[in-house]
Write a structure and sequence with these properties.
The protein is built from 13 helices and 22 strands. This is C2 domain-containing protein.
Length: 458
């Protein structure tokens, strides 16, 4: 049986999700001189990925384990894996000195509890807490998400069984019971809900033009314009920008430089437009930003110092009026070294943490980036003048960690983009939740009857 080639398209998942209604129509190509038709693609997120379960349990007549008291019980929940092993997914708090504990309600993502398989075994161990960490095993029981979702009923009263005691004592019945007091499921909003509801990502680039980068005409410079290979700045810009641009409908990106002397009077600027148009610093697509970057290298004189605060504050001024969740601003700063205005930068970040805004910093070159690590609030939330940032909005990565040893630039860029963009969805969600902004309903996907049947068959 021969198969005829009908045509092909190239599309990213980001393009589909970023389109209205998460639906895109693309023209098939690949057969010279022939119209190949169109292909309609739509994407949806698995619904069970977003469900969050809240439950409360209590126990009755648990075994006494403490010599002088009763027991200090707590529960450990395990998700079963496909290979038969178990993974801890939740521990309750310890309730001291009781055989009839009532634990506080707790919330857990459904995917953590059962990975979306409602009939998968959930094992629960009951322990007596000991100060030295050698907690005594009281017993265990098994259930499933489907069983728990029935809520408070006779189905959700569990016998706590201890296999060792069961084997030794003929009259052993159980080591107590655990009862589900309440269970409710809610759908948590995801990054994609906001994108499908029309939230736009506004992407701004800021590039370091300080003299420490080296003379762009020399091969040792981080800004060296090699005709055969992109430099680290261009690679970082292209890697991150090509993914983010799918979520920005107008594909117009403000692109700025900092730390250079500008013609004609040689004044130092920390927020100059790469396209040399102060009235409209927007570049058309990532290719337009790259073009502006290369033009600036020929036009400006690399100088210094390395000031971040001006570009952060400029993007913050754009983000400040947009409080309805319709836009979210992402600033990409690519730099080679030590920050000169650390105090002002910290203050700018703390101020920006209340805005719909994230900052990505990519460090290029061999320098130590201790100051950048400090700005990335993963370990310790950044503070300024006694004020702590409301959210962690900075993600820093050193470019050298992503340079593929075999020289494969495509692989280097893919790995860099993955890690650099990993925190943006959670940062966007943290802003929306802090302001109680819910996503707008996604617009419907309009299809003719024939298109709908074709969509169903695919």
């Amino acid at each position: 049986m021969s198969e005829d080639f009908l045509g092909q398209i190239f599309v990213t998942l980001g393009e589909i999700i970023g389109s209205t209604g998460s639906r895109i129509e693309k023209t098939l190509t690949g057969v010279p001189g022939k119209k190949c038709g169109t292909l309609i693609l739509s994407a949806e997120e698995l619904s069970n990925c977003r469900d969050i379960a809240t439950m409360q349990l209590c126990a009755n007549k648990l075994d006494k384990k403490d010599f002088f008291g009763k027991s200090d019980p707590f529960l450990v929940f395990y998700r079963s894996n496909e290979d038969g092993t178990f993974t801890i997914c939740h521990k309750t708090e310890v309730v001291k000195n009781t055989l009839n504990p009532v634990w506080q309600p707790f919330t857990i993502p459904v995917r953590a509890l059962c990975n979306g398989d409602y009939d998968r075994t959930v094992k629960v161990d009951v322990y007596d807490w000991d100060r030295d960490g050698s907690h005594d095993f009281i017993g265990e029981f098994t259930t499933s998400y489907r069983e728990l979702s029935r809520g408070q009923s006779q189905f959700n009263v569990y016998e706590v069984l201890n296999p060792k005691k069961r084997g030794k004592k003929k009259k052993y019945i159980n080591s107590g019971t655990v009862t589900l007091l309440s269970f409710k499921v809610e759908s948590d909003f995801t990054f994609l809900d906001y994108i499908k509801g029309g939230t736009q990502l506004n992407f701004t680039v800021a590039i370091d033009f300080t003299a420490s980068n080296g003379n762009p005409s020399q091969p040792t410079s981080l800004h060296y314009m090699n005709p055969y290979q992109m430099n680290a700045y261009a690679m970082a810009l292209k890697a991150v920008g090509e993914i983010i641009q799918d979520y920005d409908s107008d594909k117009l990106f403000p692109a700025l430089g900092f730390g250079a002397k500008l013609p004609p009077d040689g004044k130092v600027s920390h927020e100059f437009p790469l396209n040399a148009d102060p009235e409209n610093p927007n570049c058309n697509g990532i290719d337009g930003v790259l073009e502006g970057y290369y033009q600036s290298l020929r036009r400006v004189q690399l100088y210094g110092p390395t000031n971040f605060a001006p570009v952060i504050n400029q993007v913050a001024r754009c983000a400040a009026p947009v409080t309805d969740g319709s836009q979210y601003f992402v600033l990409l700063i690519i730099t080679d070294g030590v920050i000169s205005d650390m105090v002002q930068t910290k203050e700018a970040i703390v101020n920006a943490s209340i805005l719909p805004m994230s900052i990505i910093i990519v460090g290029v070159g061999p320098a130590e980036f201790d100051a950048m690590e400090e700005l990335d609030g993963d370990e310790v939330r950044i503070s300024s003048r006694g004020r702590i940032a409301e959210r962690d909005i900075v993600q820093f990565v050193p470019f050298r960690d992503y340079v593929d040893r075999s020289g494969n630039q495509v692989l280097s860029m893919a790995r860099l983009a993955k890690d650099v963009l990993a925190e943006i969805p959670d940062q966007l969600l943290s802003y929306m939740k802090s302001r109680d902004i819910k996503p707008r309903p996604a617009p419907p996907s309009y299809m003719s009857a024939s298109q709908q049947s074709f969509h169903t068959r695919i």
